[in-house]
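Supplementary notes for students who missed Thursday's class. We covered one full example, reproduced here. Read the sequence, then the structure, then the short commentary at the end.
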Amino acid sequence: MASSLPKLRTEASDPRPPGAPGAVWDAFARQAAWKSWALVFLFGLLLLSLLVNVRLAARPPEFVVVENPGGKTTYVRRGVATDALLKFLANKTKPPEIAVVRFTRDFVQLAFGINSSTIDANWPQALSMMTGPMRERVTKQTEAAKLLETYRAAQVRSDLAIDDILLIEETPTLLHVKTTLSRRKGPLLGGGPFTTDRLAVDLVEAVVPVSNEHTDGLAVAEWQIQELPADAPTAPKKEASNVP
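Structure (token representation):
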């Protein structure tokens, strides 16, 4: 009769270090498990808070601010605000017409009324009235053409007259302004022959936040320069270089 072999018993190894008190080790294990669940709970709260903030940021404002002519402001619920009111508030963020005229006049005076004695001061001011990409591109063009060096050596002065400034088209972020200039060039000290030319300058002016650099809330984003014949001011003669 075959005898049955005894079954072997295998016991899991004790994870506790040798000599460690059992109660203390069990307390450490329970504390580690509690910390793990606490971290999971905190991560869940963080994710929920992030989702709530995203939803709140995407919501339109509940109130709009209406300013009275006397300077007082009134809060109106957006739900009762009419389309005309909302359009009026949107238009208030655009630069007024007088600011557009002033900005355009100052820019063309600095950029096109160039004198050999003032070019070092006026040209950097004209560049500061442009957007970043426009300023970088024009700077490269003027350096390649050696514009500043040429004007310094020429010892000339320019008398600029602005014939008109027209607002052709506008969007919430851009303005298309056209201006016609008459420019009279001659020796810096006078006493020599003068030449006269007429220019049609198309400017794309970007609406930017008001700052110390852009006090009118505008910056030139693009320009196109055309030379006009003296006898026919309305018809462009030829397209000139985009460098004054």
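Commentary. The radius of gyration is 36 Å. Strands lie at 63-67, 73-77, 156-170, 174-187, 195-207, 218-228, 238-239. If anything here is unclear, bring it to office hours.
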